[in-house]
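Why do we care about 3D structure at all? Because function follows from shape, and shape follows, mostly, from sequence. That is the central idea of this module. The next example makes it concrete: a single protein chain, its amino acid sequence, and then its structure expressed as tokens.
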Amino acid sequence: MSLEIRKIIAFDEETLIEGFKKTATPWRMFSVAVVLKNPWAGRFVEDLKPEIQDYGPKLGEMMSNRMIALAGSGEAIEAYGKAAVVGVDGEIEHASALIHTLRFGNFYREAVGAKSYLAFSNTRGGPNAPISIPLMDKNDAGRRSHYLTIQFAVPDAPRADEIVIALGAAMSGRPHHRIGDRYQDLKDLGHDLDNPAAV
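And the structure:
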């Protein structure tokens, strides 16, 4: 079955006041989501690889290019993540199959120059189900200011035989970040940060 995309959605949010205080610069988070027909819906399929190998690179390249266009450049993105929501005639495995593959994620990782793994969620739901994309710093998994979540919904997706695939990004961390990072916590607890085996 060939890749069948029903719609592409862009979600873009700028926060100017957070916690009753103006932000120094707009706090921007955005996403690109694709609604596609689930090639495995309504039946058990043992081998998912043919569709993964076909769909992954096409979705990864197209969606990454759109994310970079929204950001202006890959360097401008500081936090990133991915998500998938499968309709009720599909398995969570189907959502996972399309986002947990190097053929999909590597396009985005390389486009933004990242070192960290892509934070993710994969869930099942119907039309208007929440699409929650967890984000983390693209180079530093312990940087708590960039632990974020983008949440939105598509009123008519996913249908029972569809999957919604989404990439998310933030141009910065939370504007009034004040809880430190995990490295400071570990130091406070007496861990030797120069010795990874001790952490």
